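#structure-requests
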Amino acid sequence: MLGKKSIRINGADCGVEALILGAMTAIGGFLFGYDTGQISGMLLFRDFKNRFGQEDTPEGKDFIPIIESLVVSLMSIGTLCGALTASYTADWWGRRKSLTFGVCVFIIGCIIQLTAVSSWVHIMMGRFVAGLGIGNLSVGVPMFQSECSPREIRGGVVASYQLLITLGILVANCVNYGVREIEDSPSSWRVVVGLGIAFSAPLGLGILLVPESPRWLAARSDWDGARMAMARLRGMKDNPHHGLVEDDMREMREILEKERDVGVGTWAECFVPRPNGVPKQVYRTVLGIAIHFLQQWTGVNYFFYYGATIFESAGIDDPIRTQLILGAINVGMTFFGLYVVERFGRRWPLIIGGIWQAAWMAVFAAMGTALNPENNSTSGIVMIVAASMFIASFAMTWGPICWVVIGETFPLRTRAKQASIATAGNWLGNFMISFLTPLATSGISYAYGFVFVGTNIAGVLVTFFFLYESVSLSLENVDAMYGQPHVKPWSSHKWMPDGYLSRMRRDDEYFKRPGGSGEAKGGANADGAMAGNGVDAAGAAPTARHEEDVDDHTTAVPSGRPSRSGETEKINRAV
């Protein structure tokens, strides 16, 4: 029944099932956030420290910095390994079964932690195994969401993954806050870990009720299954030959036919500049790694992994409550981020967000360095405000948008592999933050924040000079855009594919015209070129145009469509 229901969003029909799929799979982000947020408070629980700590203090046992680093950071090594193997499970078993596998591995990791008694190695290995599952989900969820979401809502759906990450962090902080009264009991930290199992069940089971990725089905020549999945995701289960479904199928077929001509993608191909005519391949691989590595090095997990410890050392009476406030800000502003990613695109939010974050991190580091917050309450308050403003910006920009970018930048042929590599870059950065932070703060204290000022500026520069604007484009047209030699990242927002009056408006006359893509439906024209937005037989990228190329004095003639002054006037009015 749900496959027959749709909601009109951004001028096109989007299926209710696509929205349910987006919400269901985003639970993977919740598990990511919950596992990230729980350790900050657990490190303060007296029973946890007495059981697994090494250093004797007047209050009892405590962790030495290197062991604390390992307990926190080995989860990130697990997620890195899980991310690299996710491409195999996603391609072999399908996107849905791969996610269920990731949930099962996460549950096993939680069980290992729950059975720990006194060995910090035991708890560390449990976090490592849980990390394997989280790493699998961190690749599979954004990829599955991007492949299944209609282009009109893709950015918001994939950004919901980050929203659930923030919600998971907030819930972990709430649970930590709730059990702190029994911190002397083993139930304190075991309740925190055990709830992760309960939270994971809806994803592991519910994911099997939604459609499989139509692009994964098409890649295995199951075109009937792909069409039905696409129709369900458009809310058109009873009309699988509707124009919107036909348009989606045509674009998907064009890219797949070209990719099949050159065989199966390999890992090595991800690092070749233009393998078999695929444009900017190594460029996109390195860009994905850089964006995700720098997302971690914004410094957000400096607060979420060690925030309670940081604010306790700053003289804050209730550091877990401060973490709760930061977590609430993170969730609230991520809701606004769902609007930002669709309204303002990908590039400018990342650029403005990076500048804003650098500014407030500089305030945090300067205040903590200049005025000892343990002896100056004003300094502590300003540092909390600075941290709050930093997290508000991250939640709207770098948090959600980086996951959107990883879901839509890579070609289908190697998407799973490149997404795994980029996500591994994220977890490498995560590991470095979680491992180095205790050591760095013990050495240079709050001056460590100035490192993040520099990395935020680096993120701004990478975005401005290398990231293309992909808002409102289908995944196939994003791939086509990267193949346009005249399109530069800073002007890419003006690019449109053939047959479109704007990125949000198709020219129906073009698709009905003899020689237009709509009539060819993925076939080849008399010259042997793939119709429409596809790629010609030689593997060259399709001809397309900038919106600025069409004005009152110039008749733009996209490839495959005749020049008519009436059409030019129509395009001029749209632009």
